[in-house]
## 1
Amino acid sequence: MHYEGTLIRPPSEAHSLILQVTTGCSYNKCSFCGAYKDTPFRFKERQLESDLDFAEQHCRRYNRVFLADGDVLILPFAQLSEIFRKIRSRLPWIRRISLYGSCRAVRSKSLLQMRELKELGLDRIYMGLESGHDRVLASVNKGETAASMRRAAACTSACAIFLSVTVLLGIAGSSLSEAHAIETGRVLSDMNPQQIAALTVMPLPGTNFHRAIQRNEITLPSPPELLRELKLMLEHTTADYVQFHANHASNYLHLAGRLQKDKARMLSRIDAALSGSFPLVAEERRSL
Ligand code: SF4
């Protein structure tokens, strides 16, 4: 397989075949994100053919495929449907196609086009909400609002596409931590995705977010503040039958469960960590 740069994939795609259809992210402007800073967005059209040849011969044990990099769904519909058709005909044993899909990528397709992609195998979209608070979204240059995130989720839901949403603890800094937690919980409730992943922001040198911290424009919440943020977010999330994961390597406290069924258990775990009776992940063990 032909891969360029550092491949990033969601933890739940650890057992998927990774097909790098594009490089980079077509937006590449979120202030906290350093994932594709020096990687131009490009459709790897020529390499796709040879990757499919390779997968046809050597990758029959995979029944899922994840399309990398950051923003494959933004490709024009005609190109995307052609890629999906090729996967279907050349790798007929593949049962599930997943990708990162930004809100603007969903918006760039009509409902009919999204339904057609679903029929062609698009099973799961991983979307970064980061925050449900409009001021926070604007401050990190996400280029979206809570309302546009809700609309994108309504579209995936209408097409019965599994939606996994990522939120970022700490992204609002200390001053907006509480409002970020409450609004994010509310927007998650409205989006009602099938999966929620809470990560903790880790400022990457070279990003505007990191520079803002160095200039003291943002103060990162302390670990107890982050725990209270997580607690408040969970308390304000009424979405049901949702897998909730806060077990990413960036988190100080690892939680996993199903909402709403396991909410009380997860909240009491946070309380235990806040009171010191449950240990936090050591700073040096955290990573992205
Ligand atoms: S967070 Fe997502 S949308 Fe924003 S720049 Fe990074 S990859 Fe692109």
Note: Residues 177-191 form the longest helix (15 residues).
## 2
Amino acid sequence: MIGGETIRINQSKGKGVTAESAEIDQETAWRMMLGIVNGQRDTRLKRFADDAWQLPEQMTEQAMHLFERYLPLCQPPGTPWVIGQLGQSLDGRIATDSGESRYINDPEGIEHLHRLRALVDAVIIGSGTAAADDPQLTVRAVPGDNPVRVVLDRERKLPNSLGLFSDDAAPTVRVVRTSGLAEPPSEQVKELVIAPSEAGACPIRALVGALQARGLSRVLVEGGGLTVSRFLEAGQLNRLHLIVAPVILGSGLPAFTMSPLDQLDDALRPDFRRFELGRDTLFDLILE
Ligand SMILES: NC(=O)c1ccc[n+]([C@@H]2O[C@H](COP(=O)([O-])OP(=O)(O)OC[C@H]3O[C@@H](n4cnc5c(N)ncnc54)[C@H](OP(=O)(O)O)[C@@H]3O)[C@@H](O)[C@H]2O)c1
């Protein structure tokens, strides 16, 4: 890991990570982090005056790695906070031209994605992703609550037969541009009307505000590229996780589609932390 110091360990280097003295294992570490998210912070996790986390003295090495990766992402209930994520190839593609994205990344990426879902109130996807993948968007690989699923489908083009709208695995919100008369496909599916901008798109700031007003303040934007790009361009992402796989597709759907830059100096060069995720590299970009 390199990058900003948001975590400090309350111990001399190396102390407390041997098997004999280990107290907190990986599973306990994860449950402690879920505690923060659920508003029940474990007293063993403290914060310094500058907001950096102070870790417990005794834990396994695996627990320490988990804390390093996820503790800076744990927000107490009610915190307005948005994280985007994309898994991409070395040449910046998130899917083939035919829309196949399973799987560009190593299996470790799945567990990571499920951990991100467990840390938020809502997970957003664009209609392109819903149509191509019909993802469940639930937390299955690790303990944690399912987030509310939010699908951007302004013209109600997506079929009600999608699992997202019919499996009842978690509440689902369909974001549309006008109210409609049609019965929702299931009691678990609600519509959220966001008036379009002049360009016809859903204004991202208004969407984030409307979700916050419904108690969905911590949000994961899970894809695809167009949707994440719109959040990034609107300045609405606090963090962006890019998982880069050592693979070259040579063509396919791009991770980012944004307004052209006039000069290189205008490029985004955020602070970041970097982790190994199987054979892939996770960039934790800090945009706030
Ligand atoms: N590798 C990964 O991490 C990853 C993650 C997710 C998805 N994927 C892949 O990515 C592909 C889909 O990505 P994509 O970039 O083509 O599409 P996408 O981002 O999933 O969806 C784009 C669509 O969402 C709607 N949308 C998004 N932002 C909007 C806004 N502000 N206002 C109104 N509508 C908005 C629009 O639909 P309408 O035009 O219909 O209104 C837009 O065309 C799939 O092949 C999927 O498998 C990969």
Note: Confidence is low (pLDDT under 50) at residues 11-20.
